[in-house]
Amino acid sequence: FKGAKKVLYILFVIGVLIGLHGIYQFIIKVQIPASWQDVAEDPVRTRVFSILKSPNIAGSFMVLVAPLSLAFAANQKSFLKKLIFLGSFAVMSSCLLFTYSKMAWFAYLAALGVYFLIKDKRLILALAAAAVLLYLFVPSIGNRIAYLLSPEYIISAMKGGRLIRWSQGFAIMGENLMYGVG
Fold it and tell me: CA–CA separation, 50 vs 33, rounded Å?
């Protein structure tokens, strides 16, 4: 148990450092490759990736580690330690937002929803309210989500994006149900 806890703390510290680096990238407006955004979509100022080379990977990592800080905060008796963990949660959550990774955002909402369902169901309402407020009052976030639901996105994703890969993956899985493909 001690070994697992130590690994989680190390993962947490790495998450905070990557989160801080991502926020730094957002502040200095790191240039992003054009391939990270569809031409039909409203432009995003920058998408952070820290040392992970992809905003989607950075977002996925934040989805994994940010909830740890909530769990650590909940188990602290010291107010200062709780504050440090909650501040770390804010850092990692901000980094996640700045990745502009739509699927990471949805995964994060699901992860926090499950955590709040277990810990305190009343927090789910606050989570839903925060998500709606971000969508309504942060134009870059609202535009990314709206684009996800647009016909332009569907066409683009079926040409060379996520939807064609899912379609191909399910086709391959269907052909190799018994043994897979390796």
Answer: 14
Three-state secondary-structure class, residue 73: helix
Report yes or no: 85 and 129 within 8 Å, Cβ to Cβ: no
Angle between helices 79-99 and 55-74 (to 10 degrees): 160
Q: Tens-digit pLDDT profile for the chain (182 aa)?
A: 789 999 999 999 999 999 999 999 999 999 888 777 776 667 787 899 999 989 999 999 999 999 999 999 999 999 999 999 999 999 999 999 999 999 999 999 999 999 999 999 999 999 999 999 999 999 989 998 998 888 888 888 888 777 888 888 889 989 988 887 87
Q: Give Cβ neighbours of residue 155 (< 8 Å, ≥ 6 apart).
A: none
DSSP secondary structure string, 112-177?
A: HHHHHHHH-THHHHHHHHHHHHHHHH-HHHHHHHHHHTSHHHHHHHHHHSHHHHHHHHHHHHHHTT
Q: How crowded is residue 131: how many other Cβ atoms within 10 Å of its Cβ?
A: 18
